[in-house]
Write a structure and sequence with these properties.
By secondary structure, the chain is an all-alpha fold. The longest helix has 38 residues, at 41-78. It has two domains: 3-78, no CATH class; 98-167, no CATH class. Helices cover 72% and strands 0% of the residues.
């Protein structure tokens, strides 16, 4: 029998149980066959994503279990500070934080006092606290200027809407204020009449 006759026999009798079993044995991969296939380009393309996936999972597991501990050990090795020095640094930081808090409280109190003197709204003072007293006072002066401009603009707008034109614009010694002051200081004579006469 030659190869063609064997192929024809197997094809014609492929439904028989003994032929199916024989063909199943032939189609089963062998270790050498799989190794040979994996060394080809197609085999590498098939295998590489699986290897990468397994490696990534293993690396993540290792990181979760070991990395933090190893980093901490390495930092401790490289650190030339003794535990006492580390504790002293922590205490220094706590003291600095407490000083900053006291300084901020002092600045807030000073800012509230200045705001009250200048009739500024105190609900927004926290936004104007600077690094030091000078910076805080500078910020409050700027607030006062802008706040005064806004109030004057609102007053002018109310007068304008009420049908009264404010000559001279906003702020300062305008003629309306000057006229009011003159009128207030003048003595007005009221005619004397006796209603019983």
């Amino acid at each position: 029998m030659n190869l063609e006759e064997i192929k024809k026999f197997l094809s014609d009798n492929k439904e028989q149980e003994d032929v199916k079993a024989y063909l199943g044995e032939l189609s089963r991969p062998t270790v050498d066959g799989v190794k040979g296939f994996l060394d080809t380009e197609e085999g590498k393309k098939l295998l590489q994503p699986r290897l990468d996936s397994n490696f990534t999972k293993g690396l993540e597991t290792w990181k979760q279990n070991n990395l933090e501990k190893l980093v901490e050990e390495e930092v401790n090795k490289r650190s030339t500070k003794s535990p006492e020095q580390i504790e002293i640094e922590k205490l220094k930081k706590q003291i600095e934080d407490a000083e900053k808090a006291r300084n901020r409280e002092s600045l807030v109190n000073k800012a509230l006092k200045v705001a009250k003197e200048k009739n500024l709204p105190d609900g927004i003072i926290d936004f104007f606290i600077g690094e030091n007293e000078e910076g805080t006072l500078t910020n409050l002066t700027k607030l006062e200027e802008e706040y005064s401009k806004a109030v004057q603009k609102a007053v002018d707008e109310v007068f304008k809407n009420g049908g009264r034109d404010v000559p001279g614009g906003s702020g300062g010694d305008n003629s309306v204020g000057a006229n009011f002051a003159k009128t207030a200081n003048q003595q007005v004579e009221v005619p004397k009449t006796n209603i019983w006469d």
